[in-house]
Amino acid sequence: MRAVLRAGLAQALYMNVPLPAAVNESVKLTRALGKSSAAGMVNAVLRRAAAADVSEADFADPLDRLSIYYCLSRPVAELFYAQFGAEAFPLAAAFYEKPKTTIRVNTLRTNDTALTALLQQEGHTVTPGPWPGALSVPMQQTARYIRDYGNEVTDDERTAIEKILDYDAIAQSYMPELSDGVKQYYKNPGKGDLARYMLVWAKMLLKHPVCYFEATHANSHGYYTITKCRAINDYYTFNNDICMEMSEMNVHYLDKSGYLRYAFVQALSAFEKLPLVGLTTSIGFMAWLTAVLGLWLARCKAKPVLPVFIGLGIFWLTCIASPVNDCMRISFAISSSLPPSTIISILFPACGGLSAAGFLSGGGIFP
Questions:
Q1: In which region does residue 207 sit, left (phi positive, over 0), alpha (psi from -120 to 50) or beta (all else)?
Q2: pLDDT digits (tens, 9 = 90+) for 268-289
């Protein structure tokens, strides 16, 4: 019954569930558990508890505060407090902060300015969305341009760039394969400043197009060149080492006995070192293999599955425009689609090119 009461109270207080609905579901759950005699008690306790004025200061014991006020289980509360001490309380409070609502404007119906004004009239606080990830390519190009040809930048061009980025900092923070060093200085400007920056960006492109090409290639070559993938072992497979260590957090895997995982990591590392064959683990190889399979199915007139490969092609272009080069996490959609893509490429021609309904329902593939 304690679990039912805790769940119902959490729904009513923290999950935007109306109190009557939370109470009703808790009572139904109580009866479903064969405790019909406790249904009235659950109803009364939940309604009274939801109306109670409880504050964090009511719990002097830190573990009671975490387990009761913040609804953490006792083992989690003990681990949390042992790991973070006093910082455990704001971290636990963050669990109950309502996330911001993100809206994407339908430009066929309205525009940013009109929708912002309408929402503000209704009493909402509106903040423009962040652009750094979407602008990582031009920002990387600008940083490289300033680094290599900073003496050619005019005062007007510098002023336009300063409205968007920290001019002096981005050249020093420029990292060819990672845009984090540059996009951290993005100032979230207005549309006018952004438009003027893009004009300056285009003028610089005409002056030194090779510089722009070098910046783009350095930040994306891992997605279309067949080379050894970076950090595929430590970052994307389980091992027994610390997987994350920062000043705020120190996260470990709970399972310390992973002999099979360790053997798998070592086998994968050895496989990557094999001449030629090891390159099959690279993102570029997977991308080109997917493209070849798509072309093969197009030649076989496999219309039912071609939209999937068109989507993967668009996703490939998105990877190339991403903020980081050669990142398996970003390209997981391509690598995870390879097994079914390969099976389809083998079976579709063998089925004699079935109709869309016949192929997708498995007709001709299995007896």
A1: alpha
A2: 778 878 888 888 888 899 999 9
